[in-house]
Amino acid sequence: MSIQEESAQPDGAAAMAGASAPPLSPSDYGLASPPLDLCAACGHCHQLEENHEYLYRDEVDDDLVCHICLQALIRPLDTPCGHTYCQECLTSFLLESDFCPVCRAPLMLQSCRKPSLLVHKLLDKLTVACPFSDHCAVTLARGELEDHIKSR
Ligand SMILES: [Zn+2]
Ligand SMILES: [Zn+2]
Ligand SMILES: [Zn+2]
Ligand SMILES: [Zn+2]
Fold first, then answer.
1. 110 and 141 in one domain?
2. Which ranges carry the RING-type domain (predicted)?
């Protein structure tokens, strides 16, 4: 009797292990639950290497729009050919290409520079809504959002 039970158990365990055998591939895990923290700067969940997300209240001037992501520039970079893109957008674009996405001039990341303070000031002035709109209806300048989120 006891011998039968003992011999049955390893079989049962093996069957159970077999049932749960097909493991999720790493990519399945990645899709299922990306462990994202709330970004302290923009209040949205995104990867560290992704752009901040903002809820713009007004139409953004075309001169301040990145022509890769079509959003207002974030951490802008000027190219030698005179175009401006988000640093994250341009970095990932240039992983696969070596030209400017707008004018197709040859382009390397090392030759790009931060634009003038004026561009940063204009971007900081863009009006955005607080991302925590459930309990906060504030709109404020993009440059003030990080402090606003911190003081929440
Ligand atoms: Zn962010
Ligand atoms: Zn961009
Ligand atoms: Zn260009
Ligand atoms: Zn708020």
1. no
2. 66-104
Q: What residues have CB less than 8 Å from 52, skipping those under 6 apart?
A: 39, 41, 42, 44, 46, 74
Closest-approaching ligand to the CA atom of 78: 3
Could you read off the pLDDT tens digit of each residue along the chain, which spans 152 residues?
Answer: 545 555 445 554 444 444 454 555 554 444 455 567 899 999 999 998 899 999 999 999 999 999 999 999 999 999 999 999 999 999 999 999 999 999 999 999 999 999 999 999 999 999 999 999 999 999 999 999 999 999 87
Residue 134 alpha carbon to ligand 1 centre in Å: 18
Q: How many distinct structural domains can be found in the chain?
A: 3
Cα 53 to middle of ligand 1, angstroms: 6
Full domain range(s) for residue 139: 37-58+126-152
For residue 88, give the CATH number of its domain.
3.30.40.10
Ligand nearest to the CA of 99: 3
